[in-house]
Write a structure and sequence with these properties.
213 residues, Glutathione S-transferase Yfyf (Class Pi), Chain A, domain 2, four-stranded mixed sheet, 7% strand, globular, binds glutathione
């Protein structure tokens, strides 16, 4: 099998989720990076992704976008530890968390809080404090719901091994942790800190750490 290629910058949370899956499987891949924060999405990427997002993924003649599809493909196409539980309930929880991340966590936590608090100042712009205040209740709900689903297990959807749910959530959580607003929210949801302490030393997490700014 040929080496897969991931297209998108290392600072993107969804690019990082795809890379985390490849790293956890032990698959060698190429990363083709470009910037979209300080200019428009490059035309070549819009050719690969009709919704002008990242990442795009190519492997053995397959062109794919949408991280949920990419990561399931990576898990099933390559050797290496399975990233999807066989247990029906754990699998349902994994899928539920992935969907929560896409539908509620990303728009509030990344799309509002992180963009305003961390990215805008980095681009020399002022944070929209009103947008941050408006997003915080939803951010808090997201963190408490994910913490509650995890319960006291090690990983988000499974007690004994990392799954695609963890890989979907890690990149957004890392940026969230760097906002001052995360402190009181994590104090109330200490299970998420315990989760992060258990997984932050993994090689996949270390190797994909973004350098933003
Ligand atoms: N549903 C898509 C979401 C991808 C996405 O939103 N990527 C963000 C970066 S993390 C992006 O491309 N943003 C560029 C933009 O909105 O202009 C997936 O799962 O791949």
């Amino acid at each position: 099998m040929s080496k897969p290629t991931v297209y998108g910058p290392a600072y993107s949370t969804y690019v990082r989720s795809a890379r985390l899956a490849l790293e956890e499987k032990g698959v060698e891949y190429d990363l083709v990076e470009f910037d979209f924060l300080s200019g428009p999405m490059p035309a070549e990427q819009i050719e690969r992704h009709p919704f002008a997002k990242v990442p795009a993924f190519e492997h053995d003649g397959l062109s794919l976008y949408e991280v949920s599809a990419i990561n399931r493909y990576v898990d099933e196409a390559f050797e290496g530890p399975s990233l999807q539980p066989e247990d029906l309930i754990q699998r349902a929880r994994m899928n539920q968390i992935i969907s929560i991340v896409d539908s509620y966590v990303y728009p509030s936590t990344l799309g509002q809080l992180v963009i305003q608090r961390l990215v805008m100042p980095m681009l020399g712009k002022e944070a929209d404090e009103g947008a941050i205040l408006a997003a915080l209740p939803q951010v808090e709900k997201c963190m408490s719901v994910i913490s509650e689903i995890r319960g006291s297990q090690t990983y988000l959807a499974s007690g004994d091994r990392i799954t695609l749910a963890d890989l979907h959530f890690i990149p957004i959580f890392v940026y969230f942790r760097n906002t001052p607003e995360s402190g009181p929210i994590l104090d109330k949801n200490s299970g998420l800190t315990a989760w992060w302490d258990a997984i932050s030393g993994r090689e996949s997490v270390q190797k994909t750490e973004p350098s933003l700014g």
